[in-house]
Design goal:
heterodimer, A: mainly alpha, MetI-like fold, 2 strands, 1% strand, B: 293 residues, disordered N terminus
């Protein structure tokens, strides 16, 4: 009797072992580790930020609900945010983003016009600044741009170009901002640049040959009719990378000017503002609201990039 | 039309006179881009006298290891030796590299080669997440890590770096074009399950992408200071970049600082550079598939 039930059971439904064998091959197992980390480290923090932004929370007292008050305060009373962080972030990203982006395209294109060995050497040199750490590099910039005659740049200006007084590169709020841009651009030829270079090099050579036969006249025509259309997907990848790079820049102005708050909040970015409220003043709710605004701005910039370079559906 | 006069200058095999403009520009640019790095290398080996020398000189005359010695023998108030920071950095970075490769390639395999419900959505979500700016969520992450109970553990250095949208994206793109579906079908007929196909068929064909992800995760982890600054507050759990920035910022004199800073910079930078130079062929092969469609 026992035997029969066992057999019928196995006919009616597959044995536990075979169920296990089948389900252990399920695609979901492959996605699970990444998906759970993704939720834990990316999705959850964003949700926490949104929720916390409606609270007042100093990490000692339990959070209290204050509705939109954080946002109202940010936009009505926070003069550093309105007059420094926002304009700085916008002008910084509008200058660094597109310039870095266009530069990496032209460098990639130019590198495709020289032979392989030379190209590899140039590419490594141009790429290598992007793997130096921005904040660590600040110690080096501080001696290069030092405000007295021992600064390398000041020495050159004073002795070779007859400039009268040493320039306070890192203490003058206006100059500091431009140095910050320069330093960021210097280190911005990273993954996006490599993607574009690989993209340009993989364009089918016969496209150029066909175009030459059809009467393509110059390099500009080549760029606009062949190169750019062929590497559009890499251009979009590069655009996304340059947006991330721009918004990830934090603490540079502070590190350049010697730690703490830079003079007159020069180069003070939204990210710095959030970190300041979060980790020096422990106003976590307020800092979260700033974070939410920042994420919104990043989203907006990416939407524009996809509009410009994405494939029409 | 004569051969060679077609005007195609794209990806040439050898040097030709019509390239001179490009070389002129690229050499100038390389000099400018490379100058700060040349400066770091020289500065790191300068003795005191040359650090303070006026007029300042770019190149070192009598190289010494003084800056490195100062960097390594500096004992912080907590009295933790530098070997501890090095150990922490090596352990966490090794874990981040190995786990990122594993986790990203598993998910990339499913997203590229397996059929399941929700696949399209997951691909869309990951592509969307490429634009994610991790620094923006440092504060909420801090709360998430506390609630997970991994604040002040090694995991606080490792876990936040493991969800790497760009890593999974690069491997998936590479698999899409380099692992033919026929090969997978053939393996299935031979009785191989998904795990076997992943390990024996797909992975060996996407090594360039795996190398790229390894390099990227190494770079992120090796120079990461966020973990030491925010996610742990026990000195014994902090990592090398944190140690270096403390040493450098605790020196009063900017000139001495720059010498030690250059030495510290070199230590953080050189491993990255050497790995990239050795692996650049594989990185380029992988970046060829990086386009977003």
């Amino acid at each position: 009797m026992m035997e029969v039930t066992k057999q019928t059971k196995e006919i009616l439904s597959p044995s536990l072992k075979s169920i296990f064998k089948k389900s252990s091959q399920s695609p979901y197992w492959f996605v699970l580790p990444y998906a759970s980390l993704f939720i834990l480290i990316i999705v959850l923090p964003v949700i926490v930020a949104i929720i916390l932004s409606f609270f007042s929370f100093d990490t000692i007292q339990p959070p209290t609900w204050i509705g939109l008050k954080n946002y109202v305060n940010i936009f009505t009373t926070d003069s550093v945010f309105l007059q420094n962080a926002v304009p700085n972030t916008i002008s910084f990203s509008i200058i660094v983003g597109p310039i870095g982006y266009i530069l990496s395209f032209f460098l990639a294109w130019m590198l495709a016009q020289v032979p392989h060995k030379a190209r590899t050497i140039y590419a490594v040199i141009i790429y290598s600044p992007s793997i130096t750490g921005a904040v660590m590099m600040a110690f080096v910039w501080r001696i290069l741009f030092s405000g007295d005659e021992t600064g390398y740049l000041n020495y050159i200006l004073l002795n070779w170009f007859g400039v009268k007084d040493a320039i306070q590169f890192l203490q003058d709020a206006d100059i500091l901002f431009y140095i910050m841009i320069l330093v960021t651009l210097w280190s911005s030829m990273g993954l996006g640049f490599l993607a574009m270079l690989a993209g340009v090099l993989n364009i089918d050579r016969s496209l150029y040959e066909a175009a030459a036969i059809d009467g393509m006249k110059n390099r500009w025509q080549e760029i606009f009719y062949i190169t750019i259309p062929s590497i559009k997907p890499q251009m979009l990848f590069g655009a996304v990378m340059s947006i991330i790079g721009t918004f990830n820049a934090a603490g540079i102005a502070s590190a350049l000017s010697g730690g703490g708050t830079p003079p007159q909040y020069a180069g003070w970015l939204i990210v710095d503002h959030a970190a300041d409220f979060g980790f020096t003043r422990f106003e976590m709710g307020y800092a979260s609201a700033i974070t939410v605004i920042l994420l919104g701005i990043v989203l907006l910039f990416n939407k524009v990039a996809y509009k410009l370079f994405g494939e029409r559906e | 039309m004569k051969k060679g006069s077609s005007g195609i200058t794209f990806n040439p095999d050898r040097f030709h006179m019509n390239q001179w403009k490009f070389h002129a520009f690229l050499i100038t640019l390389s000099l400018i881009m490379g100058a700060p790095i040349i400066f770091i290398i020289n500065h790191a080996f300068k003795p005191y006298t040359e650090l303070f020398a006026y007029p300042p000189k770019l190149f070192v005359r009598r190289p010494t290891l003084d800056n490195f010695t100062r960097l390594f023998t500096f004992s912080s108030e907590s009295g933790i030796p530098i070997s501890r920071y090095i150990f922490n950095s090596v352990v966490t970075t090794a874990a981040v590299v190995v786990l990122s490769i594993l986790i990203s390639s598993l998910a990339a395999f499913a997203l590229s080669k397996l059929e399941f419900k929700g696949k399209r959505t997951l691909n869309k979500i990951n592509q969307f997440a490429l634009m994610f700016v991790p620094i923006a969520v440092a504060i909420p992450r801090f709360f998430v890590l506390i609630n997970l109970g991994i604040y002040n553990t090694y995991f606080a250095h490792i876990i936040p770096l493991l969800a790497m949208p760009v890593g999974i994206f690069l491997i998936k793109q590479f698999m899409d074009s380099s692992v033919p579906i026929e090969l997978i079908e053939a393996a299935k007929i031979d009785g191989a399950g998904n795990w076997r196909i992943y390990w024996n068929v797909a992975l060996p064909l996407v090594i360039p992408a795996l190398v790229t992800v390894a390099i990227l995760s190494f770079q992120v982890s090796w120079s990461n200071t966020e973990g030491s600054n925010i996610f742990v507050d026990k000195e014994a759990l902090r990592t090398l970049p944190f140690y270096m920035s403390t040493v450098v910022s605790q020196q009063g004199n900017i000139v001495v600082t720059a010498g030690i800073g250059a030495a510290a910079n070199l230590i953080m930078f050189l491993p990255n550079l050497i790995i990239f130079i050795i692996m650049q062929n594989k990185v380029m092969a992988s970046m060829a598939h990086s386009g977003i469609k």
